[in-house]
Amino acid sequence: MFRRSLFMTAAFAACVAHSARAELATTPAYSNVTQPRLDKPEPQNWLMPRGTYNGWGYSPLNQVTSDNVKRLVPVWSLSTGVVDAHQAPAIVNNGIMFVSTPQNHILAINAKTGDVIWKYERKLPADMQQLHPTNRGVALLGDKVYMATMDSCVVALSATTGKLAWNRCIADWHQGYYMTLAPMAVKDKIVVGVSGGELGIRGFIDALDAETGKEDWKFYTVAAPGETGGNTWKGDSWKTGGVPIWMQGNYDPASDMLYFGTGNGGPWMPDTRPGDNLFSTSAIALNASTGKLKGYHQYHWNDAWDWDEVSAPLLIDVKKNGRNVHELVHAGRDGYLWEMERTPAGKISFVSGQPFVHQDVFKSLDPSTGRPTYNADKVPGTNKKALFCPSLWGGKDWPMEAYNPQTKLLYVPANDNLCAEITGEPLGPREAGSLYVGVPIDDIFSSMRPRPGVDPTKPMKIGQLQAWNLATGKKVWTHDFIDSATWGPVLTTGGNLVFTGGTNDRMFRAFDATTGEMKWQTRLNSGVEGTPSSFMIDGVQYIAVQSGYGVDAERQNNGLKKMLKPRLDHDTVPNEGTVWVFALLDAKTANTAN
Amino acid sequence: MLFGTGLAALAVTGDADADTAQAPQAMPPQAGDLLVQATGPQAGQPIGLPLFKTPNTLIQAWAKDPTSGVVRNGSRLNRVLLVKIDTAAMDDATRKRSAEGVVAYSDFCTHAGCWIETYHADNGVILCHCHGSAFDPTHGANVTGGPARAPLASLSLKIVDSHLVAAGPFDGRLGIPQT
Ligand code: FES
Questions:
Q1: B10–A2: do the CB atoms touch at under 8 Å?
Q2: A263-282, pLDDT tens digit by residue?
Q3: ipTM score here?
Q4: Where are the domains of chain B?
Q5: Cβ–ligand 1 contact at B129 (below 6 Å)
Q6: Is the CB of residue A526 less than 8 Å from the CB of residue A573?
Q7: pTM for this structure?
């Protein structure tokens, strides 16, 4: 877009230069991001994907409330020039916004005006494949911006100019490694993890020195023989065991503990890798300084359903039977809402697990460890067909839950009433960079089924926004989305609001956080998979989100189109990405909005 | 910062161009190259018509320099897909490029670079599993569905000693169109 501006006519250039000079006066100076600021971000800023290290997705800002949100209007928008799944949040540091997009572009933007300050475009290898063309955000530390790239590198850029400070490749993309996650900035380190579980990789988490990019520590998510958990893999299966890290972790500064969610084992069929397959489909606790494993809880063992436990557990203190329990909370792709207790030493112990969507695989949970037993007929295998619920995309995929300390409710973007049927096939030899799944592609494509007993010829409840009271373990309210799954990460605010997009009707919505009543919605140019965030400049609270539809939301919606035919035949969801920023229409914003 | 000289000075930064020199192994298919199977137990073997066993058969292939024996598998862009379709359904340009009903296209999906593995003869669609892009092999692999924005590059074929051979280089843009 602004390439065009490079070649504009002289007269027009003069005109634009004038407005650009005017902008110079209003572009804020850059405030370096320090560890104390990351430990306790100012309410007006959004310095990391979930706002704070505990993963809550909570902004204390309360200018926009459930009472006045109906006056929320777009202040500015900006086309990213890129298509596909725009999942990253707008990260905002004292008026400067950083947004990453698919194809590993970063836009630095004046968050108040929408003026672009600089743009970085990663030159990705021309012959690389992108199974998941997306990026989930940047990290800020010091005077730099960090991004993990599709070709398995980490780049550090100057936050003020976008100039490359360093580039460090941590794995070989030819072997199937790639990265979609937002890096984490923790104590002079940049922590990232790799994807590629469908391509026969061995997953790991890397911590790099924030100034140089040099590797500080590495933790393999697939335990090798001789390591803790190494006996949970047979033969050489650990070498291609998968267990990717799709998402950033959360962090407890008091105990210096990082918490990540881990992906499923690979290949998909459980008989190809007998054993529990540690540390797949788990919550893991790593000491941030050393990378040493301090604790784990495996949600389910020897996965057979592609249920990566993608997002990291949230750190929430919950009053349980008069005791303040330091919990880790995770709404699993396996369809269970997991509560665990964490200790300063990193130990993770099971507290409770219960289904939040229809789940027919688990027969029971061990009351003390939470280890599930399985209904054998619900476990697919090589040459063994099984129908199971929820579907391959699970009860909740990557979009993150949110927790509001005022309502004390956890908000879960869930998908119900969808199941899947797959049959494994014998594996051929692994070819570097090719799928190594063990399920025929056509089977995966056509795997989705409605929940037995649900009639897909009638309007179908699928996507849900659920609110849970963790103290009582009860669901408080649910908002159903009809004929659409939801793929929207959740933001909650001090204004008693919950924001989310994610549906195939391109809506971005706000709900009353206490009652679940939908208070506001607006239809954007594309489906909204972006992680919403909130920030304040000059006394005005803004809500930001990216639209841009693609990857698994689109894949699943293609399946829904077939299942619900002809109801979705005329609904198209464009893929073009846009950054949207909203604020209340009142005296303070009137000028900008106009 | 960067505003002093107006918007025309906005910085677009990126990474330096990679070395573009191409070894024979990395070169795309050349006229006269023998096509050999890229996958499966017969990987490396030449491809004849009997290999198209079912209407849905899609064969992934590499080009092999018949003189040097070099297999051009040094770039993921170089992989070729082959399907056998009804000659009567082809447009003229496609028919001209085909050999005995077999058509060849780039196997590298123009959406995001996945290798394409599936052909559905019943609805005449080459399907990329990654995100559901569909291409019509009878009409130059034009996009008929999904997120891809450009057709697959096509490759002219001939038959030499019962085996499929490239009759020219790729025709059309190879790889993902730049936005
Ligand atoms: S790479 Fe083929 S559809 Fe996306």
A1: yes
A2: 999 999 999 999 999 999 99
A3: 0.87
A4: 26-171
A5: no
A6: yes
A7: 0.93
